[in-house]
Amino acid sequence: MAELKKIGVLTSGGDSPGMNAAVRAVVKTALYHDLKVDGIYRGYNGMVNDMIEPLDKHSVQNIIALGGTILKSARCPEFRTYEGRKQAFDNVKRHNIDALILIGGDGTFAGGKVFMEEFGVPVLGLPGTIDNDLYGTDYTIGYDTAVNTVVSAIDKLRDTAHSHDRLFIVEVMGRDAGFIALRSGIASGAKKILVPETKTHIKELMDRLQQGISDKETSAIVIVSEGDDFGGAMEVKKVVSEKFPEYGVRVTILGHLQRGGSPSAYDRILASGLGYQAVLGLLDGKKGAMVGSVNRKIVFTPFDKTIKHHDKINLELKNIAEILSL
Ligand code: F6P
């Protein structure tokens, strides 16, 4: 590749807490190595429509604790077309950007891969999503914060569940993956966790709740992950309320609450380390890969693999959750 002088950085897809810490790490590491950085605003939109501005030390001051993304994020249908990507390339060239760091999920990397193949601009990705569903990293940037947000919400719901002898069915995000549900379920002592990765047998849930009632439990929390095959918290509520009218069943859908907020220390550290490694990776000639952390080691996983393979949930954790909720 031509000598690396300037990096473009963007955030794309759903925002996640820690994206700002990653941007900060990219900028500071690049400056340390005498490289320039341009911020590309609103994901691929900024590349296509020339929303590109230089970033310096001051641009990233005081952002380490901020949720969301100072670079903003958006979906960009134009980038799905060759014409859109060509326009993006012309802008990248005009700004003398030599390489890109993309912070986002598999959709972001799929776009980056095509762009790199068509126009030869080296690209590296950083895993930025609350869903934790990316192959090639143990944790994605934002996941830990999202789990903590869910746990603190459920702790509050439990107060009401206990006071009023109620059953709360809590729906959490995750797109088609149950990572948020599983860990937050263990951490909040959920009675049952329904995830998309395993088929939901509603009878098992009923038996578990029945057993709770027989054991004189007066309240419970059930977590349903978005994408679960039974159809979400409202569907579960319908069947549960019919069978257990003695419980006042309530549904809470946590929704986008899970995406915002100040990143946890864990997410800040992960984002800082990965942002730093991405710049070193580009300097070292690496491209077409996502930078992740696996067993506390930095790993560059080719986009092909991250896009094709969904990371798998740990079924051992599901067993632990089942036993501890008895
Ligand atoms: O990928 C992050 C995520 O929050 C998913 O958990 C969820 O399915 C989706 O994004 C929601 O997307 P939107 O913000 O476009 O509604």
Question: Which helices and strands, and how do they pair?
Answer:
Blueprint: E1 6-11, H1 19-32, E2 36-40, H2 44-48, E3 52-55, H3 82-94, E4 99-104, H4 106-119, E5 123-127, H5 143-164, E6 166-172, H6 179-187, E7 192-194, H7 202-214, E8 220-225, H8 233-243, E9 248-253, H9 265-283, E10 289-294, E11 297-302, H10 303-308, H11 315-324
Helix pairs in contact: 1-9, 5-6, 6-11
The structure holds 6-O-phosphono-beta-D-fructofuranose.
Residues 14, 129-131, 173-175, 226, 259 line the site of 6-O-phosphono-beta-D-fructofuranose.
Strand order of the largest sheet: 3-2-1-4-5-10-11
Mind telling me the C-alpha Rg?
Answer: 22 Å
CATH architecture of the largest domain: 3-Layer(aba) Sandwich
Overall geometric form: elongated
Task: Give the uncertain stretches in residue-range form.
Answer: none
* Series of secondary-structure elements, N-terminal to C-terminal: EHEHEHEHEHEHEHEHEHEEHH
The percentage helix is 40-55%
Q: By helix and strand content, what is the structural category? A: alpha/beta
What's the count of strands?
Answer: 11
Structurally, how many domains make up the residues?
2
Mean of pLDDT: 96
Q: Can you summarize the main beta sheet? A: 7 strands, mixed
Hetero compounds: 6-O-phosphono-beta-D-fructofuranose
Question: Mind telling me the CATH class of the largest domain?
Answer: Alpha Beta
Task: Please report the number of helical segments.
Answer: 11
Portion in beta strands: 15-25%
The CATH topology name of the largest domain reads: Rossmann fold
Whole-Å distance between the termini?
58 Å
